[in-house]
Amino acid sequence: MMALQLAIWGAWAPKLFPYMGMLGFSADQQALVGSCWGIASVVGIFFSNQFADRYFAAEKFLAVSHLIGGACLLGAAYSTDFGPFFLFYMAYSLVYVPTLSVTNTVAFASLAEGRDFGTVRAGGTVGWVMASWPFVFILGAHSGVEDVRAIFLVSAGISFALALFSLTLPHTPPRKGGEGVDSLAWRRALGLLKKPFVAVLFLVTFIDSVVHNGYFVMADAFLTERVGIAGNLSMVVLSLGQIAEVVTMLVLGTVLAKLGWRATMIVGILGHAARFTAFSFLADHPGLIIGVQLLHGVCYAFFFATVYIFVDEAFPKDVRSSAQGLFNLLILGVGNMVASYVFPNLVAKLTAADGKVDYQTLFMVPTGLAALGAIILALAFHPPQAGPQTTSENA
Questions:
Q1: Of the candidates 13, 237, 317, 393, which lies 20 to 30 Å from 31 by C-alpha distance?
Q2: Whether the model pTM is above 0.85
């Protein structure tokens, strides 16, 4: 499940912004496309995840969503004008984004121990990597629109495959409202933001999500235009981070047990700061830039996967899909939207008359944001428990 779920995303994500540039979309138009996931995350909180929590078996929800999503991806692949492309991508976002939190719900419901989620989520990382490597052969070093649209065709095929596979997943029924159970799951999830430690984590997750999504906005162009890596190899280079992510996911449970929530998350955020600092000052050393991609595993597993595990332990069982959706609102939605607006416009502002981008200045922005997030966590994040429980609390 996780392998197919993330492969859908991994097939198009690294090339989305370069592809929109090939289509001639302006920075503001690219920002609008980037906002689709933010809108989808909001809709997910108030409708899709609420629907999955209360009224619809999770595996059936996934099957229907991925069937519709695959059709929308096919539409996006053959839309070269902004209007149709935006509409198809928006429709795809509305049905795909909620499935990311629903797959988390299915995984946690099937696990004896929540901290084992890292091992399961590693399958998603494998899927992302597997989706990237075929493009070495599908694309050329300098591919045009006709070739690069394959990112959506491949993604659509995987989406249809997951729609079928979802029907074989363990039955994960909805939690019906009853005595003491609010019929609006999202309302209870939002209510938990009144707790200071949840509010602090919510703020830091927003900051880190802007940094994380900014990486995907800028990295491919940086590798091809500044570092000099061929266009058909850039996705492979980026996938090295996902390969490292598999390793970090596998050791995440052990790291959490030893370091606890706060220290593990701080390490994850500082991984972003280290990577973008390297991008700023080591662009003339391709080998080092390629090697620093391995930090992506630390960035994702030690912060975002840890957040998902924390949510599963800190939030009541009957609102966990909505709680996962609440943090996805930041990780995939608001943070994605802000990054999609800020960084393309920042790139445009830092582009000289000869077309060269001042990447050194550009990458110091996410470096500073990552450092700020780490400081806030260190000073203000005080959860009631230092680390995960040894056994899952499924109540």
A1: 237
A2: no
